[in-house]
Design a protein that fits this description.
Shape: globular
Radius of gyration: 23 Å
Number of strands: 19
CATH superfamily of the largest domain: Alanine racemase
Number of helices: 13
Distance between the termini: 53 Å
Low-confidence stretches: none
CATH topology of the largest domain: TIM Barrel
Structural class: alpha/beta
Number of domains: 2
Length: about 425
């Protein structure tokens, strides 16, 4: 099977005349439609809200598009909070889900009205000293052990650094209430990039049962349940994508089974998606500049792990399309590489592709989330620009490419260096 790019070869060639490769490009129409589908899938819950994970694609233009579609933002740092505020997000549309959090970041989050999601029971004291206890506060839960769906182990929360145990979170709510908190939320993240419609409903059941127990033991009613992220995308074209409508209905079913009879039917459902919201709607576009034939056949492109770190960092699969050769037989085996002085700087290893020639344009798929955002500057390589394919077919630059001046600008003696 293969994936279909949202750019043709002719369209890419036209864009490259203005913006040379490599670049990341995002599909506005598809991003908006996906956000609308998510909101529709959870429309049964009157308080539903998506808090987009800024870390996935921290670009103000993207954030403003999602804001127009009714989304909030999920932030993990001062910089992400600051960006959200500058993009016009206001309370309660900003969530601050951090860990090992500096006190000053708690203080800033509180000052802009962000909902603070506490990762650890000891952070109650840190928060109180920094800015006092807000009326609305959230706590993060970690059940420990392994997380499985049916007989399949999805992840290992017991090895994760995030969240509180059941005993700790119950005690945390009691403490927060005694210190003036009045509205409470719960949050949990148990698996990453799942491609099963069962993940959210299974997680929801765990959290719904817990908040019924919390109500029975403390009298505290949880007002919102943040299912966090974890709903993923099929990077491999042979895998089926998630059905967000089936997922929404699955959560609805357990909501009605567990929360409604417990008198908690007014609770709001929140999500905190990044990958699901953006990954399929971004491409890294790069041009072939070299080929090398030694013990293996290598194709060298003008992008590198600076532009997309996931394959080098995780060995992650990203599908590759050779524009203009979509219908050609994939009868050649290549490693597709970048220029870094690291042997893991490879976008593909032993990948079956059509015959590739110098000058061919490659689309690397599913880079709309955790693509540009994970970039770095090893070897002094510079980050590329980001483009947006507008709904009307026009293309605009939404982040310029870095320059050597940018790279040197934080150094003492900067002006001496660039003279």
């Amino acid at each position: 099977m293969s994936k279909k790019p949202f750019l043709t070869k002719a369209e890419a060639e036209n864009i490259i005349k203005r913006f040379p490769t490599p670049f990341h490009i995002y599909d506005e129409r598809a991003i908006r439609q996906n956000a609308r589908d998510l909101n529709k899938a959870f429309s049964w819950n009157k308080g539903f809200r998506e808090y987009f994970a800024v870390k996935a694609t921290p670009n103000p233009t993207i954030l403003k598009i999602l804001k127009e579609e009714g989304c909030g933002t999920d932030c993990s740092s001062y910089t992400e909070l600051f960006m959200s505020k500058k993009c016009g997000f206001e309370a309660p549309y900003i969530m601050f889900s951090s860990n090992d959090t500096p006190p000053d970041e708690f203080k800033y989050a509180d000052s802009i009205g962000a909902i603070i999601n506490l990762d650890d029971i000891t952070h109650i004291e840190t928060l109180e000293k920094a800015c006092g206890i807000p009326e609305t506060v959230c706590c993060r839960y970690n059940p420990g052990g392994t997380f499985s769906i049916s007989t399949t182990i999805m992840d290992n929360p017991g090895e994760a650094k995030y969240g509180m145990t059941k005993e700790q979170i119950i005690e945390a709510y009691k403490t927060l209430k005694s210190k003036g908190a009045k509205k409470f939320g719960i949050h949990s993240f148990l698996a990453s990039n799942t491609t099963t419609n069962e993940y959210y409903p299974t997680l929801a059941k765990i959290l719904f049962e817990l908040i019924v127990e919390i109500k029975e033991k403390t009298g505290i009613e949880i007002s919102f349940i943040n299912l966090s992220g974890g709903v993923g995308v099929p990077y491999d074209p042979d895998k089926e994508p998630n059905d967000i409508f089936a997922i929404g209905e699955g959560v609805h079913k357990v909501f009605d089974e567990i929360l409604v009879p417990a008198g908690l039917g007014n609770a709001s459902i929140y999500t905190e998606l990044g990958r699901f919201m953006l990954a399929p709607y971004g491409h890294l576009v790069t041009t072939v500049i070299h080929e090398k034939h030694i013990h293996k056949d290598y194709i060298g492109v003008d992008a590198c792990a600076v532009n997309l770190m996931r394959p080098a960092m995780y060995g992650a699969y990203h599908h590759i399309t050779v524009l203009g050769k979509e219908d050609c037989e994939c009868d050649h085996t290549y490693d597709v590489t970048g220029s870094l002085c690291e042997n893991n700087d490879k976008f593909a290893v032993d990948r079956k592709l059509p015959k590739i020639d110098i000058g061919d344009i490659l689309v690397i798929h599913d880079t709309g989330a955790h693509g540009f955002s994970m970039g770095y500057n090893y070897n002094g390589r510079l980050k590329s620009n980001e483009l947006l394919l507008r709904e009307d077919g026009s293309v605009v630059e939404i982040r310029r490419a870095e320059t050597p001046e940018d790279y040197f600008s934080t150094l003492e003696g900067y002006w001496d260096i660039i003279r």
